[in-house]
Amino acid sequence: MAHPTPPKTIHPLDLADIDDLLSDEEKAIRDTVRRVCAEHVDPHIGEWFEKGELPVARELARTLGEVGLLGMHLEGYGCAGMSAVDYGLACLELEASDSGIRSLVSVQGSLAMFAIWRWGSEEHKQEWLPRMAAGEAIGCFGLTEPDHGSDPGSMRTRARRDGDDWILEGRKMWITNGSIADVAVVWAQTDDEEGGRGIRGFVVPTDTPGFSAPQIHHKASLRASVTSELVLDGVRLPADAVFPEVRGLKGPLSCLNEARYGILWGAMGAARSAFSAALTYSKEREQFGEPIARFQLTQSKLAHMSVELTLGTMLALHLGRRKDAVGLRPEQVSIGKLNNVDKAIEICRTARTILGANGISHEFPIMRHANNLESVLTYEGTPEMHTLMIGNALTGIPAYR
């Protein structure tokens, strides 16, 4: 039986030719995001990171909305209705520029918009989703609290009835987009005589009296991202501000799984950027009269980085295809998030060693990606929690309880 001869072209950033598994449409979406990032993000991201600001967040959101990236995997209400693989490829390209930019898109689309799209009333959807998809309104997602991260069921934020209204009291912490948001999805404990006790979600316009979102400064990671505290001081909302059906952790955890899926793709973007910088540098930097790419130990580092980048990208693509075909179980998302972020950090650290002291300079993207990934490692579920979620799936024993 005759076998086809594989093409001889070598793509150093895609040695396994994963691109051949993508459709022309998927490649076109990927290329569009890469082009937008090259024009609007890459020339400025080093300066934004160094200054610890994202001064064009609103303008950037509108630009991303114009090309259909905000809530791109949702159907209707002005959303593009693209596939999970399309969304994953977009996240990879966004995070190849910077984790903070992918976080802006991820929080907007997979947390705030998805929560409203999946759990909101028709009025919520009509009011917010078209504007959010266009980047004309920005959303944030209030779940994590100062004292409760991995254990959201113990949150202290409360929503109590006052006549037909709800009154929200509490604080949320480490909230991406918080200070620039027009709407916040806030999760709170309730004790409603009609609906019973439990966690419920609320759609909170950020101009509501009693709501404030002081920005968090002095970060060493995700510096080109708006991160805030949410303060809810007697925030009065009408009865229809609450998500009508969902109760308990099912609501927020469903949103987190959407965001985690984007992260497992995005981490490979940061890894690719660091690997690419190291590969280029190794062929240009000379020591002992030779480019350092000539040395066996350097080639060993490059080979191992290439293998891990390939495996992580293949895992992301597999999970994306499965999500489009039949959906993903939480532990499958945990496999991707746990593996890919860990391997991306490893790639960044190895890439830094190839550049030596130059690896810590903002002239190169490696240390910026490495710092960002330290946040990505623990948000949307710490590695410990994802490990135990996988362990629970394997043994049937929930060790985290």
Automatic annotation (TrEMBL):
Domain spans labelled Acyl-CoA dehydrogenase/oxidase C-terminal: 247-394
Q: Which residues form a coiled coil?
A: none
What name has this protein been given in UniProt? Glutaryl-CoA dehydrogenase
Q: Its Gene Ontology biological processes?
A: fatty acid beta-oxidation using acyl-CoA dehydrogenase; fatty-acyl-CoA biosynthetic process
Q: Which gene encodes it?
A: gcdH
Q: Which residues form the Acyl-CoA dehydrogenase/oxidase N-terminal domain?
A: 23-136
Q: Which residues form the Acyl-CoA oxidase/dehydrogenase middle domain?
A: 140-235
Q: According to its UniProt record, which protein family does this protein belong to? A: Belongs to the acyl-CoA dehydrogenase family.
The record's annotation in PANTHER family points to: GLUTARYL-COA DEHYDROGENASE, MITOCHONDRIAL (PTHR42807)
